[in-house]
Amino acid sequence: MTEHHTPHKGTAAPQGPLPPAAVADGLVPQTDRLRYLDVATRRIARGMDLDETLRELRQAAVPAFADAVFVHLDDPLPVGTERSAAPVVLRLHSADRATPTRAGTPPPPLPEIAERVQPAGGGRLAELLRDGRPAFGDAPGNAPAVTELLVAGTGPAGALPPGHRLIIAPLHGSHHVMGTVVLLRGADRPAFTNDDLLVASQLATHTALGVQKAVMYGHEAAVADTLQHTMLPSSLPEPTGVRLASRYLPASKTAQVGGDWYDAIPLPGNRVALIVGDVMGHSMTSAAIMGQLRTIVQTLAGLDLPPEEVLHHLDEQAQRLGSDHIATCLYAIYDPISHRLLMANAGHPPAVLLHEDGRAEVLAVPPGAPIGVGGVVFESVEMAAPAGATLVLYTDGLVESRDTDIGSGVEALRVRLQGAARGLTSLEVLCDHVLGTLGPGTRDDDIALLTARFEGFPPDSVGYWYLAPHPMTAGQARRLTRRALRRWGLESLADPTELMVSEIVTNAVRFASRPLSLRLLRTDVLRCEVTDDSPQVPRLRQAGLGDESGRGLFLVNQLALRWGATRVSSGKVVWFEQKIPAK
Questions:
Q1: What's the sign of the alpha-carbon dihedral 228, 234, 240, 244?
Q2: Cβ burial, residue 69 (10 Å; 0-12/13-18/19+)
Q3: What's the CA gap between 207 and 37, in Å, rounded?
Q4: What's the CA gap between 369 and 372, in Å, rounded?
Q5: CB-based burial of residue 313 (10 Å sphere; 0-12 exposed, 13-18 middle, 19+ buried)?
Q6: In 257-405, which ranges are continuous DSSP H helix?
Q7: pLDDT at position 442, please?
Q8: Own/partner pairs for 72-77, CB < 8 Å, 24+ apart?
């Protein structure tokens, strides 16, 4: 996209002690010319991105060295070392020209530069680009190159307004031609000299390095950003008893991608694990470590370990990844049936609980040390999770900045949530409100935000029994199941549900050494869970004609909408679900 800029006044000068007019007119000693180049190239080199690099070139070149500068860049700009077979296309990316020194004086006429240039394969412009050295536009044989750069119809082929001179300076990167810089002087200034070719060569060289740096930086940032977004959840689960919403906000463009993440993982018994974490640093390495830690957390969550055990094992695994990788993490488990919350913290900013009455509370959970430190004992804290309350988990980018310490930021977040709670009934609106209070300033860190609104289970939709493991337990489980289904008006599901409950309980009795539990949950589906203390997870298998067992899970697989078996810290849970008939 072409950029148009306010013209420079004749008195403007690049930073440095050298008078620009003297340099431009070639009336100063060589040492002053070197001083000009030193100031100009340092200005160009300090550019952090493409636009800033080209802006510094324009300010260094106009009006000190030329009356106008035009920059064409390859479209698209090449990345890496591979060469494209497609024809080179140059697009006008940046342009600037000087204004007259006296107010009211019309600017001298300048030629129009083509917005899009496709150098002919065997043409003079293509030859100059391949050669890589600056050249005078009026040098013998260069008129066709000038013609390609000028807008058609500006005059005779290769013609410039009377007295005008230009230099074509190719931009050469490490592996590719990246574009060209056209430097132009009007009729009221001396023509370019051979020394000016050397100056143009230095300006073009440093600009090409800056463009290449900006392209590589942008490519790396895009790859890292894509990597991080790929590692974050593509969508959140929809467990019964809790509503979830999340946001991820990357850092400002001047910062590299970070390692913030969040996750929500369904657990046995309709519980859900809520996690937010932050890998220290900003780089592709941080994003990659974040992905590994998130995978480890998902694996540990599948074992149904308590929060402090998850953080302990995560800390051990993080140390194996390397001592330089430090992360913070907050891990919580919400049980919608008991309306309880179990939480442990590893050096992470505290969670905020927004109560239904609008009161916001910073949860007091021992912060612990960050993941990767090693030798740290983590502690879980259990607390009430009342229906209607909202848990807000976040990373430090939301509450900490150059001007705000983390303690003040957390308190400010609590006040903002408390002040707006009553008007924010939607979790999506709540997330937008939280991020909307950040203001327009530059963010040095990315932000991960996870909110969970507790709804819980109605007590009359849960049936829970402890059963002793003896031969009569299956019959007892069938009677309890039929009684619960009759109470819920689900008699049509009684026969298949009793059969599946009987098969699973019979299998549990064979291996259990302690009382087992039977739980029925009525939500949008009917869910049955049988828990025992044996870690041996049953597997579906085909029974032979002479086998007396092995058909139980086959029946469950045929009759249930879904079923599964999960190993937990105290044993295992075998469950199945059935679709509730429409009324």
A1: positive
A2: buried
A3: 13
A4: 9
A5: middle
A6: 284-302, 307-321
A7: 56
A8: 72/113, 72/117, 72/149, 72/179, 72/180, 72/182, 73/171, 73/178, 73/179, 73/211, 74/176, 74/177, 74/178, 74/179, 75/116, 77/178, 77/211, 77/215
Q: Which residues lie across from 328 on neighbouring strands? A: 278
Find the range with the poorest average confidence among 115-119, 380-384, 519-523: 115-119
Distance between CA atoms of 377 and 540, rounded to whole angstroms?
40
For the chain, the distance separating the N- and C-terminal CA atoms, rounded to the nearest angstrom, is 61
> Would the pTM count as exceeding 0.70?
no
pLDDT of residue 465: 94
Q: Could you tell me the two tokens for 22?
A: 């003297």
Q: Residue with structure tokens 């100059």?
A: 128
Residue from 575, 578, 543 nearest 559 by CA: 578
471: tokens are 């031969």
State the greatest distance between any 2 C-alpha atoms of the chain, in Å, as a whole number: 109
Whether 124 and 145 have beta carbons less than 8 Å apart is answered as yes
Q: Which residue in 571, 570, 559, 489 sits closest to 528, CA to CA?
A: 559
Contact 337, 269 (CB under 8 A): yes
129 residue type, one letter: L
Instruction: For residues 168-186, give the mean pLDDT.
Output: 86
- Total residue count of the chain as it appears in this document: 583
Contact 196, 167 (CB under 8 A): yes
Residue 576 confidence (pLDDT)? 93
DSSP state of 445: S
What's the confidence (pLDDT) of residue 323?
59
434-474 per-position pLDDT tens digit: 887 665 555 667 889 999 999 988 888 899 999 998 989 99
CB atoms within 10 A of CB 212: 21
Token pair 């976040």: residue: 394
Mean residue pLDDT across the chain: 82
Residue type at 428?
E
Rounded to an integer, what distance in angstroms lies between the CA atom of residue 349 and that of residue 396? 6
Which residues, in sequence order, are CB contacts of 417 under 8 Å at separation 6+?
352, 354, 360, 392, 434
pLDDT tens-digit map of 39-55: 888 888 887 788 888 89
What pLDDT sits at residue 20? 47
β-sheet bridge partners, residue 266: 272
- Cα separations (Å) of 378 from 244, 374, 537, 556? 26, 11, 29, 40
List 520's β-bridge partners, or say none.
463, 528
Residue 518 has pLDDT above 90, yes or no: yes
Query: To 5 degrees, how large is the angle CA 509–CA 514–CA 517?
Result: 70
Closest residue by Cα to residue 469 from 511, 407, 425: 511
